[in-house]
Amino acid sequence: MKVLVTGAAGFIGFHLTKRLLNDGYQVHGIDNLSDYYDVNLKYARLEKLKHDRDFSFQRLDLANRDGILQLFRDHQFNYIVNLAAQAGVRYSLTNPHAYIDSNIAGFVNLLEGCRNSNIQHLIFASSSSVYGANTKIPFSVGDSVDHPISLYAATKKSNELLAHSYSHLYGIPTTGLRFFTVYGAWGRPDMAYFKFVKAIVEDKPIEVYNFGKMQRDFTFIDDIIEGVVRVMTKIPTANTDPALNSKAAYKLYNIGNNNPVELLHFIEVIEQLLNRSAIKTFLPMQPGDVPLTYADVDDLMQDVGFKPETSLEEGLFQFVQWYCEYYGVPHQNNLSIVDNKVLI
Prior knowledge:
CATH class of the largest domain: Alpha Beta
Protein name: NAD-dependent epimerase
InterPro entries: Epimerase_deHydtase, NAD(P)-bd_dom_sf
Radius of gyration: 20 Å
Domain NAD-dependent epimerase/dehydratase: 3-237
Helix content: 25-40%
Keywords: NAD
Pfam family, one: Epimerase
Structural class: alpha/beta
């Protein structure tokens, strides 16, 4: 079985590729290695993968129409997992064209490749951001998501619409995954948890938006990967999702921890793990941000028998351990987690 993983040098793509290789799949990874964040981290991830004989990689941008066309000529994939995208809500305010090129034009190029190939299943990353300022909680895939409040969210909603149309027109079995605030080892430096740890160990202030009155459904990377792997072989058929009122072989799932956490508690756990106090700068809500995310994962549990359950304490413990080792930061080696509490 051969899997195409787009964004293979990215945070989620790296972890998924590693898991698929361990499970015995052949993986072909592509990534444009953009400089949106530290490219050296992307190369370090690839270094961890390149020695596996079942892994191949090429530098390729989804927006490269001819390159994607040639990719599908050169390979026959059983599964495609699209994780390549221009990420970030705030970055979209100043760099809108990067999102249109990668998340819209690039995604259409991928769909065209699928249309002309005999793939078994296309899985693509969506985002909890599509829910916008939804006040109905928890967020369900049957909720209306017609009012995105950031360009990033609009492109992710567009992906869902484009994927559905191709699934309907060409019979491509397709599943979209709405990820909720993913964190963990080898994570993205632009994410809040990464910035918090970096600033705290460097005795620099951290920016706390909405004056700390935020809640996020933080989801540990291992739980995200488990969900993706289980969904990958759960191939949808026509009429499998009555909530979407669709006859296409198309499905949507939330993958979230189903447990919103207050931002100030999140910071407090990091402080305990580092045995240092954060210097907090409280700021108002930023454009495009939402005060709360909260995933309804009943469908995921029902269809694939899995729901994320890694505690925040355990997940952050693993991230802090990785961060300190990767960046050579002195840290406590005798930390442990008991009953979801940090022991030093």
